Amino acid sequence: MSKFGEHPGLSFYYRDGCHLCEDMWQHLQSIRETHPFDVDLINVDSDPDLRERYGTLIPVLASGEKIICNYYLDPVGLERFLGGLPDSE
Q: In whole angstroms, how far apart are CA 50 and each of 29, 33, 37, 77, 85?
């Protein structure tokens, strides 16, 4: 169980007006229909530290400090996080 609730929790770092962010968000919404997970939406421009850390990587999908994917959705990495695939060696 994550801090987000009963479903696995992820953080989605984005910036307003970012077309890659919008694309990844649409893909995430589609996946959530069949694989429920909670997402904390975080605008990197809301905090100077976040802007410094993630500003050139957005969109970023992360679990805690671990980045699952950035720029484009990695369906395999996300499924692995959600428990559908074993970790690769």
A: 23, 29, 23, 23, 30
Give the pLDDT score at 89: 47
Tell me, what DSSP letter sits at residue 86?
Answer: P
Residue 80: inside a domain, yes or no? yes
The size of the chain, in residues, is 89
**pTM for this entry:** 0.83
Query: pLDDT by residue (tens digit) across 21-53?
Result: 999 999 999 988 888 888 999 999 999 999 999
Q: Which of 39, 42, 36 minimizes the C-alpha distance to 13?
A: 42
Decide if 24 is inside a domain. no
Q: Number of folded domains in the chain?
A: 1
